[in-house]
């Protein structure tokens, strides 16, 4: 497991922040029917019980949006991933199917409202991560998004540079079909509430759909 530190600038901007990290050996697959049955069931439930304007009021999403403002980012222009996923479904656009590990993280994010970083642990440089705030001109290539302006966004950095924000993770550490170790980080900008449940949901799904026979769980703040 990696050591994860929260910088003073994040503590000042979001004093209640708490995080959970899950590390596990896994087997990724291109598609998993059982997982997609769960995703489709949740999609039907969400779209039949939610209005578009309800999404940003969901407590975890609302707290993440507030953290963006405090760090210096407009959450209307750079949406937290959990909000973006829900808005996509509410517009009638199906959730994109990437691979089992990515799809699984997206499901937990959709269910809980937490923005969750999913990384290929073997691509992370060093053994320490720190959560800070993005700087002007800091290089960051978002997955499928090209160069992302992360100034004012919360960002996890390894010894080489940024690897993840609540809006998008970096191409350098992204998971793919060859990933054999996952590091998933749940961001609790609303504090500890629901954090343990989200992390345990990840552990359970990894066991059910990615052949994980055990995982490590770390809480940090």
TrEMBL record:
Q: Which PANTHER family match?
A: CYTOPLASMIC PROTEIN (PTHR39209:SF2), PTHR39209
Q: Where are the transmembrane segments?
A: none
- InterPro entries per record: B3/B4_tRNA-bd (IPR005146), Phe-tRNA_synthase-like_B3/B4 (IPR020825)
Kindly list the GO molecular function terms attached to this UniProt entry. phenylalanine-tRNA ligase activity; RNA binding
Leader sequence range is none
The protein here is known as B3/B4 tRNA-binding domain-containing protein
Q: Which residues form the B3/B4 tRNA-binding domain?
A: 62-211
